[in-house]
Amino acid sequence: MPQNLTSNEQLPFSVEAERAVLGGIMFKNDAWDLVAGLVLEEDFYQYEHKLIFKTIRNLQDSGKPIDFVTVIETLEGNGDLPELDNLGGKNYIQLLGEETPTIANIESYAEIIKQRSNLRRLITTVDQIAQNAREADSSSSDQIIDNAEESILSLRDDVKRSSGPRGIRELLGPVYSTIQESNESGESLVGVSTGFTEIDEITLGFQRSDLIIIAGRPSMGKTALAFNIAENVARETDQTVLIFSMEMSAEQVVRRFISSIANIDLQRLMRGQLQDSDWEGIDKALSILSSKNILLDDTPALSPSELRSRARRIKRETKDLAMIVVDYIGLMQVHGKSDNRVAEISEISRSLKALAKELDVPIVALSQLNRAVESRPNKRPILADLRDSGAIEQDADVIAFLYRHEYYDKNDLENKGKAEINIAKQRNGPTRATSLAFRDSVAKFENLAREERYPPQYYEDSDDD
């Protein structure tokens, strides 16, 4: 139903700004380039103005000139001109073109239109939230609150997205300052340290806004490695680390941390088969963990929007979020796309990458490779093993494959207690493999002395297996 100037007068709008923008474009076609990235058809409040702007856009897309004559002709040809009768029809369009003799302030007018549009959307969103709350039963209050938060944050995202490109000149200063600070500090890392020397040397630390995928077959130690990194980050930075554990309960995760820090066999810890000497290690682990801000969310089968909403909330509340861990991608769900798992995984990986960029934190997400790896003589994962996993390979900034040869050959004493970490993709750095010590009983990875690591030739020879 068309809007007019007498309806919904409580909503914010500026007819004057809308007229000035439309008239400016018809006065000088170059004005289109100034406003096209600032406003959309739906940003205009008055229905007739929406229709005129849509017509102008179609003319622009068709490469045709834009003035009051071509706009009138197009409206007539589409049968839309009668929609403008209450404003004066052809005369109104001609008046718009004549009353705007300059485009000097057209960008400012477009910004006014956008601001008023955002406020109207906010009012509409809040009204819908209130209606949902009135109609909800008490059992669904949590869902209503989550939906409300998502609606507001979605609106904020749209507002931020409309800001458009920034000139390189305004970016040079901040980038130069970062380079200068890195040079003066003498620090070799420019990202968040993982606590593992060789991984840090290859990646320079996990970079903010990066999506890091740790992939491998089951029982390789993906969760252990991710949790070890999370623990190291929390201990080194004294900042917040957020873990989404969709496979294990929060209590199970805590037991893993205690086992790792206290160096107590996880099975003994779970069974309660402890020795007197173990309690000193447990007390140490509890002291360390209680002083660090590690947040655990063990909600199963989170959707990208639910995970995004919770991560945003933590970012706002803590102000010092250093890293997010997602265990694991395969346990996330996308509502309404359960019939196409590849499309579902693609949406999940895109969402995680977008979230890493928005929150300016590294997100470490785990991915389980399918059984095809097992059919090869050489069971080391390669990038092709991710091809059936949606867009993970394209979306990830870093892909690290985890492989333990001793899992397949228990009698291979040379590889016992060692794990290979292959940085197979790094958007802004080199790709190469390294090795870590792995203590399965306490789910703990540790640095190897340089002489104990596999030499580069080892990985080259392995490729030929």
UniProtKB/TrEMBL annotation:
Entry keywords, A to Z: ATP-binding, DNA replication, DNA-binding, Helicase, Hydrolase, Isomerase, Nucleotide-binding, Primosome
Pfam families assigned to the protein according to its UniProt record, in alphabetical order: DnaB, DnaB_C
GO MF annotation, one: ATP binding
Catalytic activity: ATP + H2O = ADP + phosphate + H(+)
One annotated GO biological process: DNA replication, synthesis of primer
GO cellular-component term (any): primosome complex
EC number: 5.6.2.3
Residues annotated as signal peptide: none
Domain annotation SF4 helicase: ranges: 185-452
SMART domains: AAA
Keyword Flavoprotein included in the entry's annotation: no
Matches recorded under NCBIfam families: DnaB (TIGR00665), PRK05748.1 (NF004384)
The family this protein is said to belong to: Belongs to the helicase family. DnaB subfamily.
Family annotation (PANTHER family): REPLICATIVE DNA HELICASE, REPLICATIVE DNA HELICASE DNAB
Protein name per Swiss-Prot or TrEMBL: DNA 5'-3' helicase
Species this chain originates from: marine metagenome
